[in-house]
Amino acid sequence: MSAPIKTLLSRSLLRQARPASIPRHRYLATIRVAQQAASRSFTVSYRRRDAASDTSEPHHSVKYTTDSYDIERNPAFAEISAEDVQHFKSILGDDAAVIDGVTQDATDDIEAYNKDWMNKYRGHTKLVVRPKSTEEVSQILKYCNERKLAVVPQGGNSGLVGGSVPVFDEIVLNLGRMNKIRSFDDVSGILVVDGGVILEVADNYLAEQGYIFPLDLGAKGSCQIGGNVATNAGGLRFLRYGSLHGNVLGIEAVLPDGTILDDLSKLKKNNTGYDIKQLFIGGEGTIGVITGVSVACPRRSNAVNVAFFGLESFEKVQQAFKEAKGQLGEILSAFELMDGTSQDFVKKVTGNKHPLEGEYPFYCLIETSGSNAEHDQEKLEAFLEHVMGEEIVADGTLAQDDTQIKALWAWREGITEALGHAGGTYKYDVSIPLNELYKLVEESERGESKALGVVGYGHMGDSNLHLNVPVKKYSKEIEKALEPYVYEWIQKRSGSISAEHGLGIAKNKFIGYSRSDTMIGLMKQIKNLYDPNGIMNPYKYLT
Amino acid sequence: MSAPIKTLLSRSLLRQARPASIPRHRYLATIRVAQQAASRSFTVSYRRRDAASDTSEPHHSVKYTTDSYDIERNPAFAEISAEDVQHFKSILGDDAAVIDGVTQDATDDIEAYNKDWMNKYRGHTKLVVRPKSTEEVSQILKYCNERKLAVVPQGGNSGLVGGSVPVFDEIVLNLGRMNKIRSFDDVSGILVVDGGVILEVADNYLAEQGYIFPLDLGAKGSCQIGGNVATNAGGLRFLRYGSLHGNVLGIEAVLPDGTILDDLSKLKKNNTGYDIKQLFIGGEGTIGVITGVSVACPRRSNAVNVAFFGLESFEKVQQAFKEAKGQLGEILSAFELMDGTSQDFVKKVTGNKHPLEGEYPFYCLIETSGSNAEHDQEKLEAFLEHVMGEEIVADGTLAQDDTQIKALWAWREGITEALGHAGGTYKYDVSIPLNELYKLVEESERGESKALGVVGYGHMGDSNLHLNVPVKKYSKEIEKALEPYVYEWIQKRSGSISAEHGLGIAKNKFIGYSRSDTMIGLMKQIKNLYDPNGIMNPYKYLT
């Protein structure tokens, strides 16, 4: 059981007799007691299920993307023939590397590659290829480009915008068999991996060496690093470790014509020409396939602390954030926001008792990571004393060990999965100035009454809000109430209509709300430069 | 006067009676006493002089680049006519915005723009334009592109590879008048500036708001942020704050055809399409001119400490670095390396007394920045105790106040300027695996006897070495002894032949030692895409 902060603080105050910034009697009088049941268990599954093994939803009940979207197959693309299948088999050697639904019925084997984990997007592919080397990827793409066969690169298939599943009969190029850790240097912290290495596998490996992957997200148990880079994933510790544009040192990628972009640098600094690899970070597999990644990994912190707060208003959340930045400084590694509705969904789905006794409109999870446990504890205590004494935070609890840390994180990371139990969820992943971050949720609530709720949560530290509207069933009526309203709202504030999820097929039509015509024109120029036949991940991104 | 570490440590040991990781008597017995003269003064100028005001070297004594390099003017470029000058005057309105050496004699006014601060490169330009707005830059470039007039964008002209001065008669487009801080958000820490804002001006402005610019370098008093971004400057605190590829959130740039790339995002996350601005970071003004930059700035640390060490071997330097990473963790903000020869040059030029009494083959400067002075002090003391007790460090001193911090930094930052007093310096800015970092200096020493010395220093934390070979006079003989030897040495170790200085005209011929033909081919494709007439900063970078 994680401990109520009050108890911890009084213990610490008694022990240290340190001067509190506010008179102690006032402090004790104003903070609320979080009486927690000793029997509480935190069992929510906080990792998303692997898409390929997710058979809970019968395939036939998932609507084809071609039925939900008004979209036509590009007639310039060839149709896959038996000869093509034969050719891929000859390249890949191993029978297991080709799932052939062209010359035989392979529906059951193929469907997991055809649909996303949210059961929102479903394609019509009949062929999955699973290369084991960069050279094989090169041969596949070269052939596809010459034959004008469309291709969808697929990593862990854990995306949220339908970017990694086919729409029509695009060949799925799955990276799952390219899963080797290539090298690690324990002085520099530079890790080189195949594109198909699962994020959690890499992070566990790094943990053994005293290092940490500079990216973490709910889907870490299934997402792949190549996919993370291709979608420029942000995640939970962006606040501390920053963007993949800074942390990725090198990329090996295969261009549509089979050219291998060999830029797998293990150097932190290398100013010799245009940094072309950056185009592939966030390129969503539309100009090439990432087969290798070199990344600078920071030292893993010895001491990690997680606190969980209840707060009475978004105003107070902002105050708490400002205080956290100031007082926790360099040890702050996450500041996550969850509204009351989001926690109601997790409670309902998991049946678990919430870490905090009372109900609050807002909750925050704060994580610190540092090299000296005693120092961090002192900083955290001073911070907690201040925010509770000043009534910025109404109630709070502090994890006492790793199990409790995971349990508290589960109330944040479990939101996506909990919402997944609704019939469907309209998802908006937006970036807006901090002071207006939650206003979007409140205003969307007013406009929408048919939904099961309007949920707001996200990465407060990055001004990144996840606005989710769970519904019994997707309907044009609800969609119309939300769109373009939400996008226009964001545009007025010069925000981003996709902060970290990318465009895929879900957001591509709305890029104009966040980018000028000039920028879109320049992007299309890049697409044409690398993929003149347009075979890579078509119907998405810029189309 | 900064204090000898031994004194500080014994004081701290007495005060705290903390358990040392090694027996105290051994500790006291093994560290060496740094007896420092009370009258010591640190007066070395640690900021580079502004290029435009540097008139110490008579212009005529500086060799033209066209005489030192075997290079021919591209006949496709037009020659500047009186009509062109008239046109620029009509665009820019203000007479002061055009320095016209075409229709009149303006040699004295123009020469500062024609040569670099090292007196190594000198061009033949007869026209300098100094626009005040992005719109003016757009009109200038559009005209130049149509007329096929070549252009050199110029910021603070503090580069080290001749990238910001003309070779032949390219028009100098100087950004110095675009020097406005456009906006700053004190919650998010996002700063938006004109490209011509001087780095130190921006950092001083941020200091008032409790923030820091995530880049610092010796030339901060004259270099401009647009130039820093165009050259992807690394500098002194890369170790802590990381790369501009991660910190720059948005760029406004003008393409050669006059198109304004309007990507001045103030968002930390924005996954809506290819991150095209990244091509301009490190593009060295060859595909456009950066007129605006948006950058994420971290909070300024309350507590800054600087220690300066003498060490007996490079082996010990590596040990000290590993210990610093482990024990100082998140507060380590710089770990700089200087060899004995580098310090001899600074001593000689400044006449100052060195912070350490004895002479050592290696010196290190360690900086910590944190939010809690007491905690940082404790971490630093434990670290110092350890590295001195274990005889990793032979002697050391710790700055006691801001003046001493600056003074210690001057022994690191002053190296470039001190070497500038030689007749010339062969400069190599390389990235190689840490364990071999200094081997390059030792091996270059063996091969070269005609030089005034072989100097090694740099950013240990980033595996970034500055190998400098000061000479009385540049000579083919010395050059041949060094090149291609140095480049081949780096290539064998998959290093970078230009870690942070860029290519310019000094390194462009050697790009093949660090990049494959495929990568160079892809880079040329990008150049041709944006600048088909090749008017931007010609004769450099990829040519």
TrEMBL record, chains A, B:
<feature type="domain" description="FAD-binding PCMH-type">
    <location>
        <begin position="121"/>
        <end position="300"/>
    </location>
</feature>
<dbReference type="InterPro" id="IPR006094">
    <property type="entry name" value="Oxid_FAD_bind_N"/>
</dbReference>
<keyword id="KW-0809">Transit peptide</keyword>
<dbReference type="Pfam" id="PF01565">
    <property type="entry name" value="FAD_binding_4"/>
</dbReference>
<comment type="similarity">
    <text>Belongs to the FAD-binding oxidoreductase/transferase type 4 family.</text>
</comment>
<dbReference type="GO" id="GO:0071949">
    <property type="term" value="F:FAD binding"/>
</dbReference>
<keyword id="KW-0274">FAD</keyword>
<keyword id="KW-0496">Mitochondrion</keyword>
<dbReference type="GO" id="GO:0005739">
    <property type="term" value="C:mitochondrion"/>
</dbReference>
<dbReference type="InterPro" id="IPR036318">
    <property type="entry name" value="FAD-bd_PCMH-like_sf"/>
</dbReference>
<dbReference type="InterPro" id="IPR016169">
    <property type="entry name" value="FAD-bd_PCMH_sub2"/>
</dbReference>
<dbReference type="InterPro" id="IPR016167">
    <property type="entry name" value="FAD-bd_PCMH_sub1"/>
</dbReference>
<comment type="function">
    <text>Catalyzes the oxidation of D-2-hydroxyglutarate (D-2-HG) to alpha-ketoglutarate. Also catalyzes the oxidation of other D-2-hydroxyacids, such as D-malate (D-MAL) and D-lactate (D-LAC). Exhibits high activities towards D-2-HG and D-MAL but a very weak activity towards D-LAC.</text>
</comment>
<keyword id="KW-0862">Zinc</keyword>
<keyword id="KW-0285">Flavoprotein</keyword>
<dbReference type="GO" id="GO:0006108">
    <property type="term" value="P:malate metabolic process"/>
</dbReference>
<keyword id="KW-0560">Oxidoreductase</keyword>
<dbReference type="InterPro" id="IPR016164">
    <property type="entry name" value="FAD-linked_Oxase-like_C"/>
</dbReference>
<dbReference type="GO" id="GO:0046872">
    <property type="term" value="F:metal ion binding"/>
</dbReference>
<dbReference type="GO" id="GO:0004458">
    <property type="term" value="F:D-lactate dehydrogenase (cytochrome) activity"/>
</dbReference>
<dbReference type="Pfam" id="PF02913">
    <property type="entry name" value="FAD-oxidase_C"/>
</dbReference>
<protein>
    <recommendedName>
        <fullName>D-2-hydroxyglutarate dehydrogenase, mitochondrial</fullName>
        <ecNumber>1.1.99.39</ecNumber>
    </recommendedName>
</protein>
<dbReference type="InterPro" id="IPR016166">
    <property type="entry name" value="FAD-bd_PCMH"/>
</dbReference>
<dbReference type="GO" id="GO:0051990">
    <property type="term" value="F:(R)-2-hydroxyglutarate dehydrogenase activity"/>
</dbReference>
<dbReference type="InterPro" id="IPR004113">
    <property type="entry name" value="FAD-bd_oxidored_4_C"/>
</dbReference>
<keyword id="KW-0479">Metal-binding</keyword>
<dbReference type="InterPro" id="IPR051264">
    <property type="entry name" value="FAD-oxidored/transferase_4"/>
</dbReference>
<dbReference type="InterPro" id="IPR016171">
    <property type="entry name" value="Vanillyl_alc_oxidase_C-sub2"/>
</dbReference>
